[in-house]
Design brief:
This protein is mainly alpha-helical and 92 residues long. The protein is built from five helices and two strands; from the N terminus they run ααβααβα. The protein has one domain. The termini are far apart.
Length: 92
């Protein structure tokens, strides 16, 4: 899987915030703005050729094909598959 780079770097901030809130850190909730933003920024950091808009659209597409609770690893895999099916926006 080419997107395993997302897991090469720790998700410590994410995990800490989830556990502090008493939530399962292995479940991703795209309805939570902070979780959505966290994933967008993490993906954009590793794949800068994709805009935050294209990443958000891939997340939306993944939301439509999954049901809660969404396992984080599985959900991120679906998001990345959706994203890689898109061509990156080239900004001049």
């Amino acid at each position: 899987m080419p997107y395993t780079v997302l897991y090469a770097n720790p998700w410590d901030d994410y995990d800490r915030r989830k556990t502090d809130a008493g939530e399962n850190r292995d479940h991703f909730c795209p309805d939570e703005p902070w979780e959505l933003n966290y994933l967008v920024k993490k993906v954009q950091h590793h794949y800068p050729s994709y805009t935050d808009v294209s990443i958000s659209l891939a997340i939306r597409q993944a939301v439509k094909t999954t049901i809660p609770p969404r396992q984080r690893v599985e959900f991120v895999s679906i998001v990345m598959k959706c994203l890689f099916e898109r061509k990156p926006f080239i900004l001049n």
